[in-house]
Each structure stands twice: as structure tokens, then as C-alpha cells.
User: Fold this.
Amino acid sequence: MSGKYNPYENMLEVMEKAATMLKLEKRDYEALKYPERELKVSIPVEMDDGTVKVFEGYRVQHSSSRGPCKGGIRYHQDVDMDEVKALAAWMSLKCAVANIPYGGAKGGVKVDPSQLSEAELRRLTRRYTAAILPIIGPEKDIPAPDVNTNGQIMGWIMDTYSMMHGYTVPGVVTGKPFDIGGSLGRPEATGRGVMFVTRELLSRMGIDPKTVRVAVQGMGNVGSTAALLLSRLGLKIIAVSDVSGGFYKAEGLNFEEIYQYVKTRRLLKDYEVEGAKRITNDELLTCDCDVLIPAALENQLSAKNADKVKAKIIVEGANGPTTAEADEIFEKKGITLVPDILANSGGVIVSYFEWVQNIQSLMWDEAEVNSKLERIITKAFSEVWDESKNHNTTLRMGANMVALRRIVKAKKIRGIFP
Ligand code: GLU
Assistant:
């Protein structure tokens, strides 16, 4: 790879390697290199000051072989088609690793939502929804939250879709607030899944959780919940950061307190921790810790800093935080990495539960949701672990092999239309 980092090329490189290890024939997986559908839309928004701004939006459906397409929508100023394509493909793989009956999709709008008022954000969301409306729906493609999107935004999407259909359709999005058909346990699900896979890995490696020091990059929903639940499991959270930088404290941070602060979406730069050293995001990634959890954006661990990483374990809370070159470096250094398509699958697993509840008009209690999540994600962990041991390869390769085998099998059974 050369020039600008392209997450789609990164995804293809890993897929190719997994296909070779599975000894797949080219015709079996050739179609998976191309998303089934790519939609680019322009989104005119009337701003509060009366001007009109036009934003760019995307929805990519990578594969529907195993079921309706599924995946979040992100709002970020750097979103582009290649990123959304990669994220859509990772969703297909993620749903296949978890063995839930979905294909993969992703959406994005190129916007910095912190620059919009709530009314502007609502108008942008409704217009984007109208633009992608022909290709979404509970049986076709079901969006969910991702970077910088949340339950409120899902609520607007659900309402817009419902208004256009003339009746309420809760199953068109997941990650909705509870009062309009969201599932208990969904807001914490991705972080809870990160906790479960970390716990499983430590147990396989014979490491006592009480001796483990954790660094977390990203204090959004995933990073903050993962840190909270891991601290409750007895692990020591020694470093955290958000876009504004972070803290390092060798004796451990009081994360219950930090959690209350970041929950209200305030930045760490405005927070004081006694006895802690202020660090940058780059310093967090290479700090002295046992488990590193990148839970922010793609391309954080690359050839530039991979050599300096001191953690022995990396658990990818984010999608695509590690480049293919960094992966090789980690393998050589003997770092164990739990890949995104397994580590952060808790979110889409509980999205699946939400959708199942919606289409059957059921409501499960939180204990039921959490125990079903635990069962599915620990089973997925075991299958990936066994695959990687059987082929003497990394967990990333193991996860991609499990996923690819399942998708290719579904494609084979269905055959190529016409
Ligand atoms: N955006 C989350 C992810 O990347 C959740 C997707 C979903 O629930 O559909 O896995």
C-alpha cells in the first residue's frame, strides 16, 4: 500500500489472506470484493441563519447473502466513500463472526455535528433519511448508531421513515431510545461485549484480571462503557484519552468518577485528576500498560507507532484502528490482538435483539438481553480462538476465516442470480 491510507484496501488485503488460508476458489469470494450497492446523496440543509448548506451522505450495502444488511451511520467531517465501503464490509464479517442473520452495510454523512444546532442536526438527519429511504427498511437494511450518532438521531430516522409509510415502523433502525422501541442493554452493549471478550482472552491466557493494567483511547459510548465494566471486573484503568488528550496514572484512575464526567460528553481537557500525568493520544497508544483498547477511529495503530506499543494485548473497540502493516508488527512482537469484527460485535448483537423484539412486538428485560449477549459473544470468541489455534494464526485471521467461510457458504447455497 502506498500514499493515503485506504481502509477499503486494508480490508481487501486481510480478506485475500483469509481466503488463501481457507483455500477458497476465487469464484467463491470474488463478489465479496465489491459492495452490492453504493449510494451517494447530497443533503441540502436550511441552517438557522437562513443560508443553505449542502452535505454529502453515503449508504453502502456490502452483502445481503446471510440476511438483511445491517450497520451504523456515522457523522464525521472525514467520512468518505472508501471509509464507508470498508466499514460496510466489516459489518458483513462482524455479523458472520457473531453468527447473526444479517449482511453488512454502513452509512455516513460528511459533517462535524458539533458545529450544528440541534434543529440543524434534526433537519440534516431527516433529509439524509429521505434520501436513503428507498434502500432501507426492516427487511432490507437496518441502520444504527456509530461515531457521533445516538439514540435521538435514530429516533428521527425512525420517525421520518414511519411518516413516509403512514405507520410506525420501529424495526427500521436499532439503537433507538427505549421509549420508542429500543432495547434495554443496547446503549452499553458494545462496551459490555469488549469486556466479555477481554475477560475470555485473559482466562485463556491464564492471566488474573486483578493484575491487569488497561489503557483506553476514546471516551465515547464504547470506550467509556468498556473501561467502566472492566474496572468493575477488577482490572486497573491506568490511562484514558479522548480527542482533547488524556491522563496516565500508574496506580490506577478512579474510573467511576471519570465515567460520570465523560457521560455528559464533556472533554477530558477540562477535567482534573489528582496525581495523574496529562498525555496526548499518541502517548496513550504507546504507554506502559498490559491491555490497550483503541475505541476511537480507524488508522490509529500504523507502521508509524506499532513498534512502540508496549501493551501485550490489544482489544479493538473501534472499527479498523489497526493497519495491515501494524498487524504484522504486532504479530512479530507477540502481541495478542482481538480484532474489531469480534471485539466490538456486542453492539450489533444487541441491535439484532432489538430488531427481533420490534418485529415480534416483544420486550425483554435487561438480564435476558445481557445473558444472551454473553452467550453469543463468548461462543464467537471460542470459535475464533479455535480457528486461529488450528491454523496457527492470529485472532484477526481466525475471525476473518470464520466469517468468510460462513458468508461463502451462504452465497454458494443461494447461487448467482439469474
Ligand atoms: N455501529 C456499530 C458497529 O460498528 C453497531 C452497528 C449496528 O448495531 O448495526 O458495529
